[in-house]
Amino acid sequence: MVWHTCRVIEAAIIAVVVVVLIPVGFLMSTSIAAGVLGFLLKSDAEDRHADSELLETNR
Predict the structure, then answer these.
(1) What is the pLDDT of residues 16-38, one digit of tens each?
(2) How many Å apart are CA 45 and CA 30, to the nearest integer?
């Protein structure tokens, strides 16, 4: 009987990990990657177009 209860608890833990932890971790990691990519692309664009008069309108 105790062995069966342990199996049910293990299944519940796996279900929580699959339903909650994996999607939340994926969304958090992609938002961090998007922030880093945006920072790098912004600094690259500012370096390439340093003498453009349009940079002042974007600030």
Answers:
(1) 999 999 999 999 999 999 999 99
(2) 22
